[in-house]
């Protein structure tokens, strides 16, 4: 018994976690991470991003994400791939080159073709474009948008589709669950991609985009309710897509957390799981690390933390027990 087994019994594909090779020598951590009944899918937390995989233009290094992938496979766990075109964790050359439309298009295509081809057949899904939107729903003014406008979206998805026709291709972002204007922006992105798909494929309808990932980085007591989460997901399901919660964690904004706050966190986790179970096209949930020991939250949002299902000493928190008994 474990979260993944229970999730599969409930008709979903996976309950997964982010992890990476820097944590491979922590045995207490590994005994949980490698339990395929607990976490049935792994996604590299950092090592598959553009900076680590192509630190110098044209020079690729897949040793770390390969290690995550092969170990997941050996344990019978699924593998999710993250991420290709993203404004953050970019190599220097992407940020400093004076790009033209032509040269940046080629750089994106080269990165995606090499990376997606390398992992061909191994990824349940790829987060092809990550965090393209501002919170107000306009396009983020990053190097991709400044050089190519919205064309970089289709350039990225078409390159990924050509390199691995079997991987589900996702648009992934945060705050879509809480900000209507940002969800509106994501709907526009999907519309653009679906128009592109018709004009490039003619009569043959090969989807360019298969899914939307909701990062679900929430705060305790401020997690959207089930109705609201389901309503947001349904906008994308209505466009023919599958959905998932792709980086779930629920951070305390006051530390140390009180007993009451731990109970609220448990309730909030159950709300998210409940919304996925009640949405037939929600395929699964991935937490962004399962232990407070390794959560990215405290270093990124000072004063916040303890966002995970397991404590820093690897014991199950009330959130774990509540999710487990809910499932
Ligand atoms: C984070 C990692 O967890 C950190 O270790 C790293 O320092 C920064 O990136 N959205 C994403 C993830 O799509 O890739 C980010 O991961 C968290 C926010």
UniProtKB/TrEMBL annotation:
Domain GH10: 1-326
Keyword Secreted: yes
Known pathway: Glycan degradation; xylan degradation
Active site: 247
Subcellular localization: Secreted
Keyword entries, A-Z: Carbohydrate metabolism, Glycosidase, Hydrolase, Polysaccharide degradation, Secreted, Signal, Xylan degradation
Top-level lineage group: Eukaryota
EC number(s) given by UniProt: 3.2.1.8
Single GO BP term: xylan catabolic process
A Gene Ontology term for the protein's cellular component: extracellular region
GO molecular function terms attached to this record: endo-1,4-beta-xylanase activity
Primary residence: secreted
Reactions catalysed: Endohydrolysis of (1->4)-beta-D-xylosidic linkages in xylans
Family, similarity comment: Belongs to the glycosyl hydrolase 10 (cellulase F) family.
Stated name of the protein: Beta-xylanase
UniProt organism field: Diplogelasinospora grovesii
Parent sequence residues shown: 44 to 370 of 448
């Amino acid at each position: 018994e474990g979260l993944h087994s229970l999730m599969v019994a409930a008709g979903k594909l996976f309950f997964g976690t982010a992890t990476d090779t820097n944590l491979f020598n922590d045995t207490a951590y590994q005994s949980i991470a490698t339990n395929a009944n607990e976490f049935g899918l792994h996604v590299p937390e950092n090592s598959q991003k553009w900076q680590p995989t192509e630190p110098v233009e044209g020079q690729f290094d897949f040793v770390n994400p390969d290690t995550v992938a092969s170990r997941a496979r050996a344990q019978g766990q699924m593998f999710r791939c993250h991420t290709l075109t993203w404004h953050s964790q970019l190599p220097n050359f992407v940020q400093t080159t004076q790009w033209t439309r032509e040269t940046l298009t080629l750089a994106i295509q080269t990165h995606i073709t090499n990376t997606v081809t390398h992992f061909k057949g191994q990824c349940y899904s790829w987060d092809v474009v990550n965090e393209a939107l501002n919170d107000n729903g306009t396009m983020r003014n990053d190097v991709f948008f400044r050089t190519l406008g919205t064309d970089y979206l289709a350039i990225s998805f078409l390159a990924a589709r050509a390199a691995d026709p079997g991987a589900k291709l996702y648009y992934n972002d945060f705050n879509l669950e809480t900000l209507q204007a940002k969800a509106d922006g994501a709907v526009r992105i999907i519309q653009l991609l679906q128009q592109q798909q018709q004009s490039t494929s003619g009569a043959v309808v090969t989807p360019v985009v298969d899914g939307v990932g909701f990062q679900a980085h929430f705060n305790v007591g401020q997690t959207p309710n089930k109705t609201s989460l389901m309503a947001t997901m349904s906008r994308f399901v209505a466009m023919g897509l599958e959905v998932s919660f792709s980086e779930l964690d629920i951070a305390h904004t006051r530390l140390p957390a009180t007993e009451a706050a731990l109970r609220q966190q448990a309730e909030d986790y159950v709300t998210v799981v409940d919304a996925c179970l009640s949405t037939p096209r929600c395929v699964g949930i991935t937490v962004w690390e399962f232990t407070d020991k390794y959560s990215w939250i405290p270093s990124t949002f000072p004063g916040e933390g303890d966002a995970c299902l397991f404590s820093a000493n690897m014991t199950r928190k009330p959130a774990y027990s509540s999710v487990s008994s809910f499932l």
